[in-house]
Design brief:
Distance between the termini of chain B: 71 Å
CATH architecture of the largest domain in chain B: 3-Layer(aba) Sandwich
Structural class of chain B: alpha/beta
Largest interface: A-B, 24 and 29 residues
CATH superfamily of the largest domain in chain A: NADH-ubiquinone oxidoreductase 51kDa subunit, iron-sulphur binding domain
Shape of chain A: globular
Helix content of chain B: 25-40%
Number of helices of chain B: 29
CATH topology of the largest domain in chain B: Dimethylsulfoxide Reductase, domain 2
Number of domains of chain A: 2
Strand content of chain B: 15-25%
CATH class of the largest domain in chain B: Alpha Beta
Radius of gyration of chain A: 16 Å
Oligomer: heterodimer
Number of helices of chain A: 8
Number of domains of chain B: 5
């Protein structure tokens, strides 16, 4: 506990691959928020993370480099939550597929500016779900909009994924 | 009493009240889909979100999940909560089809109301709507799964509330599916309630599909008369025809639900075959002519042979008004009767039950739910009074144990104990159970006459010893319980049982227990008939007197002996001997063919009226519509007739009480106004019980309970209680009893074409031991020979019934009326296996 994120990546995990730069990571599994570069040296324990507005979660760290599209990554994660929702309560059962649809459209060049506000409102409302599954599941989307909103805008303006040259 | 503030209004509520209900008490209707008072809070739909501003909870919370507490300040109009609720509607509408114009729920759809109320009008979601396959769920319920909003009400009602397992929720997430593992007719006899509780159009009423919109219908509070419980219903009428019946909430009787027999049992009222015109000797004549002819002939016979030469038979399905008018007519003219029961044993059981049901012992159907132990004696709820099953289930869910003492193969959607003994042995077993249960102090404190009954109970017999372990366990459970209900049937039981059950209840009450007594009676107004019937004649004696030429005229009021009298050849013969057979009915009964004079009467829906249910509760049904041919039958379709007339075609029928009053009057110019008030006034004079009846416009929704107790003088079975009947010892003899079935035996509901599809084929139930002994296999056809005829019937073999007993449901498609009596003893050589093609 308390080991710095940078140390975990560089020392214990063998460092970034050649040519890859740290862009963000999920510090503790799919239900935690993206941790952008500014937290690269954060001490990985519950208290420090909580103070920084993040969660240590499961401690399963997933690192993304600068060539990775975080909209696509979030879409992938949301796909998972949409599939795994038990279906008991409305926000989770219907909210995740709805957000998956919006993220898919953004990623595939069909995004519209108002999608961003719908996404952010829906994330807030999914906190009113029956259990803690949905509040965890929206964490990647919330942090995508908080730290990487420009990337989302770029998708919408260019009507395509900027990481995909084709 | 928690005091809280909702939308700036202060309210005190009972502890345990949910915030959603507290708001409703203030007139604030918080939206809800999954929440239902009978099914409880589960917090699935999330549409009842409100904002908690002060108190133990903060922020947006579900108002159905939180108990009202002191100091709470709640806003239902807070911006965040409103926005969240709008999203919930949007989410639910993502996949809900926009098919309101062709959906049968449109117009009474909660989702439609909430979508409009929430202002969700523009679709933002650009994805596809998800679709599902629908299932065939039988003839009563239409399934359209695409409309589902996953409130889980159906599976919660079907499985948790009712205990049936064949419909529920499958899969997860977006793919959640509500239905059966395989398409097929729903097994629950309460399946129609899915239609009422579904907040949208997943389950809709199949028989009334596409007939009209809610606003096309005239909706009238009514009662169900398909059994003795008297559940509350709402009937929807269109163009002189009931098209739909739904449950109406009743605090005391049925709660929110009704059974399928009640829901779809109304079709008799608009049967094409329904007799609508008065007849003399089979020829249509005017009402006045019929009345005049009947009156003249009755007077003539009365003068020639004395008033005792006229006998009358009333009906347990008639309103109290009709029963009272018949009693008054008989008293005025000196006629014999009215007799209400074709089977005298059943008559004695009902009258004993009515007399024994003292006010302090009577409990309502809803009270049964509160019991912690229920002992049912000679009662088969699913078949005799289906809604009792749901009441028992609620008690069982709360931890109550349920025990049945009955020969029949009792089927219930929950676990229970079943002491299956032959009908003759039931009283002995019950008496033994009583002896095992009552403690010494109570026995010492008994009055001498009660002590005498107690002392007369014999000691162990072989019947008791073979059930000893189970009986000991039951007696022990009864001793440990605090709130008992004894349910007692009056159909298959011997004459001592209803009184024994009451005796048991009184003794348990002396032991300091809270005890309720709940009888089941045959017929919706059997209780009223017990109060108003004449004790002297019996139907059997009337037939004897007809044969002897002493009775020359018979008046049948809404009673068809062909349906109940167990010796059909004799009945046919005897009715032929009458000088006058006057029949009044609204059903196409067989006696109309034999009638010299026939008068068509009105149904409950057209005439309204009072009915007294099995707990002695007088309830009122309103008039739903004025009679006459339904338009659908009269002018080739639903369009009103294009030819104009000055009266409704087929409207000649009158309430039976009207006909009886016209018969009582000496001249034909009868005033038609105010006659019902006359009967009610007469009723009040007849018995002080009826003086409690409030005026029509102030009649309480849940009715008024009148329990005469011992002060009404029926023939008491008290002396007979001293010696319990002993079971037949012969292994060669079998007891044959005829019984009710949920679908197929009750005379009103069997006239429903939709319930006919729910009927099983007629059969005789036989214990597997007996079947093995007689070399009979499942499905074999047997001929049962009685003293008066032969009944040939297929065999159903089961293990959960009493050995040595044959059980035949009185199926309308079976001529069981050749058995000679409703209960007979047959020796095994009277049961013969026959080949299918062999004539019986």
């Amino acid at each position: 506990m308390g080991v710095r994120l940078s140390e975990i990546i560089e020392v214990h995990a063998g460092g970034m691959r050649d040519g890859a730069e740290f862009k963000a990571c999920l510090p503790g599994g799919a239900s935690t928020a993206f941790l952008p570069g500014e937290f690269y040296d954060i001490e990985m324990d519950f208290e420090t993370m909580r103070k920084a507005g993040h969660r240590l979660g499961t401690g399963a760290i997933m690192v993304f480099d600068q060539k990775t599209c975080l909209v696509a990554a979030t879409l992938n994660l949301t796909e998972f939550f949409a599939r795994e929702s038990c279906g008991w309560c409305t926000p989770c059962r219907e909210g995740f597929p709805y957000m998956r649809d919006l993220l898919w459209r953004i990623e595939h060049g069909q995004g519209q500016e108002e999608f961003i506000s719908i996404l952010s409102q829906m994330c807030r409302h999914l906190w009113n779900s029956y259990c803690a599954f949905a509040p965890g599941g929206v964490a990647p989307i919330e942090s995508l909009l908080a730290y990487f909103e420009d990337e989302v805008h770029a998708h919408i303006e260019k009507k395509k994924c900027p990481f995909n040259d084709k | 009493m928690p005091k809280l503030i909702i939308d700036n209004q202060e309210i005190d509520v009972q502890p345990g009240t949910k915030v959603i209900d507290a708001a409703e008490q203030l007139g604030i209707m918080i939206p809800r889909f999954c929440y239902h008072p009978a099914l409880g809070s589960v917090g699935a739909c999330r549409v009842c979100a409100v904002k908690f501003l002060q108190g133990p909870f903060k922020g947006v919370q579900m108002s159905c999940m939180i108990d009202a507490k002191d100091g709470m300040v709640v806003s239902t109009t807070d911006e965040e909560a409103v926005d969240f609720r709008k999203y919930v509607i949007e989410w639910l509408m993502l996949h809900h089809p926009h098919d309101c114009p062709v959906c049968d729920e449109g117009g009474h759809c909660l989702l439609q109301d909430m979508t409009v109320a929430g202002g969700h009008g523009l679709r933002r979601y650009q994805g596809k709507k998800r679709t599902h396959h629908d299932q065939h769920l039988g003839p009563l319920v239409q399934h359209e799964m695409n409309r589902c909003i996953q409130c889980y009400r159906c599976s919660r009602f079907y499985q948790k509330f009712s205990g049936y397992r064949d419909l529920g929720v499958l899969q997860i997430g977006e793919r959640v599916y509500f239905g059966r593992y395989q398409a097929g007719t729903l097994e629950s006899p309460f399946s129609g309630n899915l239609i009422d509780i579904c907040p949208t159009g997943v389950y809709t009423d199949k028989p009334s599909r596409f007939i009209g919109r809610r606003w096309d219908y005239e909706r009238t509070p009514s009662l169900c008369i398909n059994c003795s419980l008297g559940c509350h219903t709402v009937v929807s009428t269109r163009y002189r025809e009931i098209v739909r019946q739904e449950a109406r909430f009743s605090e005391a009787v049925n709660g929110h639900f009704i059974c399928d027999r009640g829901r779809y049992g109304f079709f008799y009222a608009s049967q094409e075959k329904r007799p609508r015109y008065a007849q003399i000797n089979g020829n249509e004549v005017s009402w006045e002519k019929s009345i005049q002819t009947a009156r003249d002939q009755l007077n003539r016979i009365s003068q020639e042979s004395g008033p005792g030469a006229v006998a009358s038979v009333g009906s347990v399905r008639s309103s109290l008004e009709t029963q009272a008018a018949l009693s008054r007519l008989c008293q005025k003219k000196g006629w014999q009767g009215p007799v209400y029961w074709i089977d005298h044993g059943q008559e004695m059981n009902v009258k004993t039950a009515a007399a024994e049901l003292a006010d302090e012992l009577a409990v309502s159907l809803r009270d049964v739910e509160q019991a912690d132990y229920i002992l049912a004696v000679g009662a088969d709820p699913v078949n005799e009074a289906p809604m009792l099953v749901l009441a028992l289930r609620q008690a069982q869910r709360m931890g109550a144990k349920v025990c049945f003492l009955d020969p029949r193969p009792i089927g219930l959607p929950f676990s229970f104990q079943h002491i299956s003994v032959a009908p003759q042995a039931m009283d002995l077993i019950l008496a033994h159970l009583l002896k095992e249960t009552i403690d010494q102090d109570t026995i010492k404190g008994l009055e001498p006459h009660e002590k005498k009954i107690f002392d007369a109970i014999p000691n162990n017999s072989h019947l008791v010893s073979s059930n000893q372990k189970l009986l000991n366990a039951v007696a022990n459970d009864i001793r440990l319980s605090q709130r008992l209900v004894i349910v007692c049937g009056t159909d298959v039981v011997s004459e001592t049982i209803p009184e024994r059950a009451a005796y048991f209840a009184r003794l348990l009450a002396k032991m300091g227990k809270q005890v309720g007594l709940f009888y089941l009676l045959p017929g919706a107004n059997a209780f009223g008939a017990a109060l108003l019937s004449d004790d002297a004649p019996t139907f059997g004696r009337i037939l004897d007197e007809i044969e002897a030429g002493l009775v020359r005229a018979l008046v049948l009021v809404e009673n068809d002996p062909y349906g109940y009298y167990p010796d059909r050849p004799r009945l046919e013969r005897v009715l032929q001997q009458l000088d006058l057979l006057l029949v009044m009915d609204y059903l196409d009964v067989r006696t109309i063919q034999d009638a010299d004079v026939f008068l068509p009467t009105l149904t409950l829906y057209e005439a309204g009226g009072f009915f007294v249910n099995q707990e002695g509760r007088i309830q009122k049904a309103s008039i739903a519509y004025q009679g006459g041919h339904p338009i659908s039958q009269f002018s080739n379709g639903n369009h009103p007739p294009r030819s104009f007339r000055n009266q409704i075609p087929g409207k000649e029928a009158q309430p039976a009480w009207q006909a009886l009053i016209e018969l009582a009057n000496e001249n034909s110019a009868t005033p038609k106004q105010g006659v019902r008030a006359d009967i009610l006034a007469w009723l009040v004079k007849t018995h002080p019980l009826f003086s409690k009846l409030p005026p029509d416009n102030a009649f309480p929704s849940d009715g008024i309970r009148i329990n005469p107790g011992k002060d009404i003088h029926f023939r008491s079975a008290a002396d007979r209680l001293v010696v319990p009947t002993l079971a037949s010892e012969s292994a060669d003899q079998m007891e044959l009893i005829t019984v009710d079935w949920t679908f197929g035996t009750e005379e009103l509901s069997t006239r429903s074409p939709h319930l006919r599809k729910m009927e099983s084929k007629p059969c005789v139930f036989m214990h597997s031991n007996d079947a093995a002994q007689l070399d009979i296999s499942e499905g074999d056809k047997v001929a049962v020979r009685s003293d008066t005829g032969i009944v040939s019937i297929h065999v159903t073999i089961t293990d959960n019934m009493a050995p040595g007993v044959l059980i035949i449901p009185r199926h309308q498609r079976l001529d069981w009326q050749h058995l000679g009596a409703s209960k007979i003893t047959v020796s095994k050589d009277q049961i013969r296996k026959i080949r299918e093609e062999e004539p019986c």
